[in-house]
Amino acid sequence: MWDVEIRGMASAHAIVASSIFMATVMPAVFVENFSVYGTHMVWLHCVAGSVAVVNIAVFWLLGISPPTKKNTLSYKLNRLFRSCLYFLLSCLFFHTVVVLYGAPLLESALETFSLAVLLSTLTTLRCLCILGPNVQAWIRVFSRDGAMSVWDTSLQITTGCSVIGAWLGALPIPLDWDRPWQIWPISCTLGATTGFLTGLLAAPVWIHWHRKQLTYKLK
Amino acid sequence: MKLSSSVFALLCLICELVSIALFLRGFFPVPVKSSLSDKSKETDFPAEPQTVIRIDTLKGGMPLWTVKIFYGFLKSNICVLSYVRHQALTTGSIPGFIDVVMNLNSPALLEDNLIWQAKSAGKRIIFYGDDTWVRLFPKHFMEHDGTTSFFVSDYTEVDNNVTRHLDGTLKRDDWEILILHYLGLDHIGHISGPHGSLIGPKLMEMDDIIKKIHASLISKESEGTLPNLLVLCGDHGMSETGSHGGSSEPEINTPLVLISPAFRRKAGFEEPGVLEQVDLTPTLALGLGLPISKNSVGHLIPAVFEELSLREQLRLLQINGHQLSRLLQDSNPTFHKEDGYEQFRVAEKSHGSWMTLYVDGNTSEVLSNMGKKVLKQYLEALKAMSSALSKQLGKYDMYSMIMGMIFILQVLFLLLLAMPEALSREAVVDIPLASSLLSLPFYLLCLFGSALHVLVCTSAGGPCYLCSLPWVLVFTVILLSSAFTCALVSMVARRMPTSNKTPTKGSDWTLSELDALLLIGTVGHTLSLASSSFIEEEHQTWYFLLNTLCLAIFQDVCRKYFREQRHRDEEEDRGPLLPTGAEEGPSFSPAVELGMSPGSEKWLALATPLLTLTCCRLLRSLNQTGVQWAHLPDFGHWLNSGDHKAFLSVLAAVSLVLIFLLVQRHCSLVSKIALALGLLGVYSYRAAVGNVLFPWQHSSRAVSKGTVEARFVYVFVLGILFTGVKDLLRSQVMPSAVDSGRLKSRGLWEVYSGVVLLVALLFRAHNLPTLACCLLIQTVMAQFIWKKLHYDAAQTTIMHYWFGQAFFYFQGNSNNIGTVDISVGFVGLESYVEAPAIFLTALSTYAGPLLWACHLLCFLSSQRDRAVMGLGHGSYCFALLRSIPAAFYVVLVTSLRYHLFIWSVFSPKLLYEAMHTLINTAVCLFFTFMDQERSTRP
Ligand SMILES: [Zn+2]
Ligand SMILES: [Zn+2]
């Protein structure tokens, strides 16, 4: 049982990670002069889009998301609407936090917001896919000892890693090194993506190593 | 020996301060000095080789030619205040960095200098301008009118005072040298930066004055007299923010214009060349026919003398070379190996043979070719000697540096080893000093140290500070150091078995996320000091850490208040998404405090970190500091630009009201009234100085120095401080413990509000919001976070320290000496008085860290029921937080002493670190005092 779950998660993570890889390589076919630094915004949107699509597809197919009690169309629509709202709110929240950290308020607002969208895709969207638009469940997962399944633990790890990656990525921005990746928000997005990939890789490994200690309450 | 934590911390800080002072003494080079006694008459011209005739024209002044404008750039060295620059201009020696520190007040210049040489040659000198010149050269001027330059906000009076003498003086004939020092432009730079609206008119005014002088000099020109020379130069440039003292290009490059009929008129405008500032002194000295100052390290500017005959040129070069080689012999024991010295000897020899030919009456082409060759040799020799002398400045006194470093590291290890004891409930540190004093290794170490000292001092080639100290003092240092080493070793030995016996103790001591953040932040910041870029932009590090801290606190608040909630709130889903990962939570029980309804308290607690974040974001755009982004327009510039005076007035008034509302809560009625009047006084002081307007005052009236208003505020500051101290003393003799505690807390708050009032007076008008925000954050954080979330004394101290550091930069400081606002030292003073000026400048520069430390003291002592040992823990943490970066930085600077940026980036930061340690020691002293008071009570 354990191994099956972990293996399933590892393969899901591998698919998501490969989608990021594809998003980095594929646009070169369609877009002229495509490069991660040069046409950074295109890259960013490709990554965000592909991660979103692949995440939704994978979790829908796997059926990880909590079973819905009512199967009516209006209920489903309601859920969809709430998910979109939460996603938008989380984008705004990240945008605010980034501005508070010192990003310019007006100029390059588009770049800042794109970063917020990327961060939301890497964190909130996965929460929405796995837990649904259920705030109670979110609070449970992110409070201490609240994880009830391997997916919850993986969620904790990937979310933490993405945010810490973005945090670390912001460190070298003000320095006078004049590198191409110091332009706002390249280092942050790269940091967040790297952190996310690390999280995807680390989560199955960590869970596998600690499977003795992890005792999940039954749902 | 048992010591309480606070006393232990204080002793450690004092030791550290002494060792940093020792390190600084070794680190900052002593300027190159000639061994001849100062101002001895001995410097005469060397005999011209192979000749008996002295050419008199060379002793008289500049020979006649027609007008030419010589235009170039003066490249000055890095230094701080203009005194040092005047010194560089007149003595021609490069000011050592230590001069910057020593010359905050300028005593009479004892060194051999150009002005003194001119005076003793019988030249009559007139001076108008900044009175630092008059103090530097007392009795040197036939006539002078010094204006005090310290009211940096004044840019008309200082200049008018110079100009009003000009017409009369130019008509007269009884002087040879006229020195005019215009300060207005410099002051405008300090007020509004190089792009302000005041700059243009001022430059036009200066143009007119130069035109006037030039016209009058031309009209005076007549046959037979010597030609006049007009020298136009600046002692320093202006950075993008309008200050100076750093090492950016616009700060150290200033134009130098020499206008004289003695120069040939050039057809077009030539590409200007770059010169060293020290080169001006020998050039002027030789042009005036004076001996070159002995300590001058510059070489003459060849272009100025190119119209002279070859023989005269060679003669001047020889005089200059002679002086430089003399200085080189005196300052460098291995001068024979210097290239320049050797070249000079060769050049002098060929000069001799050239003279033989010349005196023989040879006028062939051979002679002129040979002369040109000699000229070239001389010039190369001069350049080489000059640069060799400048390099002398880069020599370090390694012995003192290493001793200081060892001392600092010992203190750091002592602090680190004592951590478990110092942060225990008893807060008592046991230092095994007595046992180590009696041990054999101690005596062996003493013996070894003394032997080493003797060995180093007998073999040292260069100057060494420790060797010049009396041996009793040195022996005390060695004694202390060996005792420390022994104590350290025995403390390590004591720790060893305990850590082996109880290995389980470490595992149940879990690190909360906040602890992890505080630890990572402290270590990360310390490590970031290794990079010059991070030092230049250190404020960014602190802002970043502070933001993360606020978000971590926000998360803690969410954890505390929303764990069991079943409501669906907007804030809820935000909480878990905060940047610090969400693996482990803090281990406290959520106990709802009394006092406020839990519902509103929850929301207030939640809003507090957000409010703090918003405040920090606003303050960050108020003062743009650092190096890379310092030139960007910030809100502070916008406020000061003159067009927005009304807005600035409103902002200042609102800030002052806010300050009053936030501070008065804890004070007695008398202090409240005094505080209100004092803050009113602050506003009227700012109005008098011309920063802000009164509502009824529409046009800007005459700007005064505001001395009366400032003194009015000082009276209230002293009054409030006096009331506070009186309350503190009275609490000592109170019989009941409750009353005494209350009185003591009130006394502390009153002292705190006195400090706030003083800072409000000293801060520039646009910085008053910084102060208001500081107080606001302190109040709300104390009310809703530190009290409610049960942070222990150590955590609270670290947070206070971080806030203090961030506010140091919020108020516009940087790691560049240029941003120190020296005009603060003259608030309420008619003239420069050393002690208060230094005190006020230090206070206003370190206002941020100081206010947060004071707040910590007030907060911890009012929380005594919860954390009995709070003050001890607090002062210990303060000492540790200061020691870690200081020790690391000292080691770093020692290893990077040949780094390219050592003088421009690393050494100013070293001075800031030393000053910060001094401030922290003062704070710790106060902590210890308060802690002692508690422990002496039954
Ligand atoms: Zn100046
Ligand atoms: Zn100045």
UniProtKB/TrEMBL annotation, chain A:
Which InterPro entries would you find in this protein's record?
GPI_biosynthesis_protein_Pig-F (IPR009580)
- Major location category of this protein: endoplasmic reticulum
Segments forming a coiled coil: none
User: Under which pathway is this protein filed?
Assistant: Glycolipid biosynthesis; glycosylphosphatidylinositol-anchor biosynthesis
Q: Where in the cell is it found?
A: Endoplasmic reticulum membrane
Domain of life according to the entry: Eukaryota
Alphabetical GO CC annotations of the entry are: endoplasmic reticulum membrane
- Biological process (GO), any one: GPI anchor biosynthetic process
* Keywords noted in UniProt: Endoplasmic reticulum, GPI-anchor biosynthesis, Membrane, Transmembrane, Transmembrane helix
Record membrane topology: Multi-pass membrane protein
Kindly list the residue ranges recorded as spanning the membrane. 12-30, 42-63, 84-106, 112-132, 153-171, 183-209
Q: What is this protein called?
A: Phosphatidylinositol-glycan biosynthesis class F protein-like
Automatic annotation (TrEMBL), chain B:
Give the subcellular location: Endoplasmic reticulum membrane
Location, primary (coarse class): endoplasmic reticulum
- SUPFAM superfamilies recorded for this chain? Alkaline phosphatase-like
> What family does the entry list?
Belongs to the PIGG/PIGN/PIGO family. PIGG subfamily.
Q: What is this protein called?
A: Phosphatidylinositol glycan anchor biosynthesis class G (EMM blood group)
Pathway where it operates = Glycolipid biosynthesis; glycosylphosphatidylinositol-anchor biosynthesis
Q: What is the lineage of its organism?
A: Eukaryota, Metazoa, Chordata, Craniata, Vertebrata
Which residue ranges are recorded for the region named Disordered?
A: 570-590
Q: List residues of the GPI ethanolamine phosphate transferase 2 C-terminal domain.
A: 601-920
Topology relative to the membrane: Multi-pass membrane protein
Could you cite one Gene Ontology molecular function of this protein? CP2 mannose-ethanolamine phosphotransferase activity
Origin organism is: Sinocyclocheilus grahami (Dianchi golden-line fish)
- What keywords appear on the UniProt entry? Endoplasmic reticulum, Glycoprotein, GPI-anchor biosynthesis, Membrane, Transferase, Transmembrane, Transmembrane helix
- Please list every transmembrane segment annotated in the UniProt record, as residue ranges: 398-419, 431-456, 468-493, 646-663, 675-696, 708-725, 798-817, 837-858, 879-898, 910-930
Can you supply one Gene Ontology CC term for this chain's record?
Answer: endoplasmic reticulum membrane
Q: Which gene encodes it?
A: pigg
